[in-house]
Structures are given as structure tokens and as C-alpha cells.
Design brief:
Blueprint lengths: L3 H4 L4 H24 L3 E2 L2 E2 L1 H17 L5 H24 L3 H21 L3 H20 L14
Antiparallel strand pairs: 1-2
Helix pairs in contact: 2-4, 2-6, 3-4, 4-5, 5-6
């Protein structure tokens, strides 16, 4: 006798719950990654942001082949993009597009870390990129969104 409960496909609600957990995690991670760019010595401000991002851009340029204009352009928009995309993921605003753009942003972060040969950071970013891929594969089960995608 075989146990049919082991071979039965997962219920649709299982996929919905899995996607919700993944979306919430990625949204919080992205939001907090953006907000932390505004912090220095326990305070948050735009002045801190521009100081932190200029330091990051100069550090990447100094340790790699990437030109300052490219690293500075990326760095100065990074915190704002991460914050906006994190909020959009948490609220479920155009989730498919938001996941795709967020994943591309993390690929860009990974590229910067690859350029400075920061292997451990690349591995962490790689794990997050794989979570974005998983979320994109499960996005059809997105049931809790303020502004859902039209295609399912």
C-alpha cells in the first residue's frame, strides 16, 4: 500500500504562504539595506548618506577597474532605490516588476563586490539574488498585494 499523501501536490495555499514569507523577507531586507545607507554614528540624515555613498564609490574605484563616474552614479542612487523597492515589495506594488528590478539591483551590487574581489560579500549577494529568482518563480501565487500584476 502506498501513502498517497506523500505524493499529492502541495496545496495552492502552501505556495501562497511560501511566496508571502519570501516577499516579506526580501522587502524588509531591501528596505533596511536602503535605510542603513543614511546612518552614521547612530544618526540618520541626507548628509550622512552622501558622505557614506561618496566614500563607497571612491573605495570601489580605488580597488577596482571601475571608473569613479560609474561607481558614484550607482552609489548615489542606491539608498533611494533600495528604500523605494523595499517599500514596494512589502506593500505588494507591481510585485513581479519590483522583484525583477530589485534582483537586477542586487546583481549590480554583486558586480561591484566582484570587481573589488570581495568573495564573501559576493556569496551573500548571490544568496539574495537566488531568493529573488525563487520569488519570481512563485510570484503567480501572490495573493496579498495592494497593486497586483495584471498577468498571472
Amino acid at each position: 500500500m502506498s501513502d498517497q499523501s506523500n505524493s499529492a501536490p502541495a496545496c495552492r495555499c502552501d505556495y501562497t504562504m511560501a511566496f508571502l514569507i519570501l516577499r516579506l523577507f526580501l522587502g524588509l531586507r531591501t528596505l533596511l539595506a536602503g535605510i542603513e545607507k543614511f546612518e552614521a554614528k547612530g544618526t540618520y540624515s541626507f548628509a550622512n548618506y552622501y558622505e557614506n555613498m561618496n566614500r563607497m564609490a571612491n573605495g570601489i574605484t580605488g580597488a577596482s577597474f571601475l571608473p569613479l563616474w560609474a561607481t558614484k552614479s550607482f552609489a548615489l542612487s542606491l539608498g533611494y532605490l533600495l528604500t523605494i523597492l523595499g517599500v514596494a515589495l512589502l506593500l505588494g506594488l507591481k510585485t513581479r516588476l519590483t522583484l525583477f528590478v530589485s534582483g537586477l539591483l542586487y546583481v549590480g551590487l554583486g558586480f561591484g563586490l566582484m570587481a573589488v574581489q570581495e568573495g564573501e560579500g559576493v556569496a551573500w549577494i548571490g544568496m539574495q539574488v537566488s531568493m529573488f529568482v525563487g520569488a519570481l518563480l512563485l510570484v503567480r501565487y501572490n495573493r496579498f498585494a495592494l497593486w497586483a500584476d495584471k498577468t498571472r
